[in-house]
Every structure is written in structure tokens, then in C-alpha cells.
């Protein structure tokens, strides 16, 4: 009997990931040789797009989508989703190019899809999940932000900003991608929140998130403020006064972290 994961596409957005790209692609192909890969490159000036084409020429399960320029992670994933839906993939996955999402754990997400889940999130904060090589301040901000987000929305999830995910096509087909919020990493929260609100089966599995070893994070602290402000608006509409009290406490934490302008965050 066929399983949904028999037609899986792993979408890997790239921008200046020349060194990381062949490493992550090689790991995916070794860990889950049955899946196809789509590299979505935003016209990287370091030659990542050209390297992606070379990898694709050597392996028919590797595909490349070139975009005109850097328009953000949400736009890259939306382009990947549309590409995959047009080609009748049953499961579409998000995965970072920098190695922070272990391809060796992808099977954990796909197993839950095959068991009936519509959306599976690789969580750093569910029991068994962990984060490697983050400073304490960054971990506190990420954990605190996710607690706030989940409580504000009443979503019952531990890691709504996580970017390691698997979606059934039926969920993605129902979305109007133009409606997704673009603030910071908020589109990840938006996708999970839409799934929960619509009654889809959303599950979390524990994963190990490892900070990149090559290259630099492409986000700075401003996205934290933007994302939490957006969530607060949603929460006020959904849960009222309860969120006002939460936002005061979370604001203290965010304010403290945003003063450290030299740090870059990827929560």
C-alpha cells in the first residue's frame, strides 16, 4: 500500500550557502534516498546557484529553482510549495541549508505523516528535543518567545517558530499563500496557527537543532520584536486580556535582548 511519504519533496532555500549546500544535500540523499530535493536559490552572489545546478546535473532527484533575488525565506518556501504542488508531491518538507536540521532525523517527521498527521514540526522544546551550541541568552529568548506565542494563541505547541517541518499536500493546497504574514519568522507561526485553527492534525517530534558551523545567520534581533508584536495582535483578537498580561512580561525579555545589537538571532 502506498504511503503519503512515498512522494516527498524536501525544499532547501539558499542564499550564499556555497560550502554548506553539497554537505546538506549529501546528507539528505544518504539518510532518505527515496525523497526528492528542491534547492530554491535567491541568486546567491557566491555561486550557490551554479553549484546547485551541478548537483542537479549529477542526480535526477535533485532539482533547482532559481529566483531573481533575495526576497526572504517565506517567499522562497512559497515558491517551493507551489513548485511541489504542481508536480503532485504528497508531502513537502522545509529544511535549512546550514545543517541545523539533521537530515538523519527526517524519518521521524515522515513517520508521523504516514500515521495520519497533516503537519509535523521538528521541535527543539518538546520532550527529547535539544539545541546545540547556542549561548544561554539566545536559548532563553527562543524558549520564552515560543512559550509566549503558544500561550497567546492557545495553540498547545512548544516550538511554533521551528523551521524543520513536513506538510501533507492537502493542507498546503487549501492555503492562500498571499495571506501569510511576512514579519520575521512569523510565517512559520502563521502556518502552524492556521493548521491548528482549521482542525488539522498537527504533531511535534523531538529533534536536535545544531547551530551552523559555516557562514553567518541572516537574521538580526529586529525580527523578534516584529514577530512578537504580530502574534500579540492575533492573540488579543483571539484571547483578549489574557494576552495583555503575557505581553507585558514578554516585552521585558525582548527589550533586554534587542539592546544587544551585535548579536544575531535565529530562533
Strand content: 15-25%
Structural class: alpha/beta
CATH topology: Spore Coat Polysaccharide Biosynthesis Protein SpsA, Chain A
CATH class: Alpha Beta
- Largest sheet, strands/sense/barrel: 7 strands, mixed
Measured distance between first and last alpha carbons: 39 Å
Q: Please, what is the CATH homologous superfamily?
A: Spore Coat Polysaccharide Biosynthesis Protein SpsA, Chain A
Number of alpha- plus pi-helical segments: 9
Q: What is the 3D shape? A: globular
Helix content: 40-55%
Number of strands: 9
- Low-pLDDT stretches: none
Strand order of the largest sheet: 3-2-1-4-7-5-8
Mean pLDDT: 87
SSE string: EHEHEHEHEEHEHHEEHH
CATH architecture tag: Alpha-Beta Complex
What is the quaternary state of this protein?
A: single chain
Mind telling me the C-alpha Rg? Answer: 18 Å
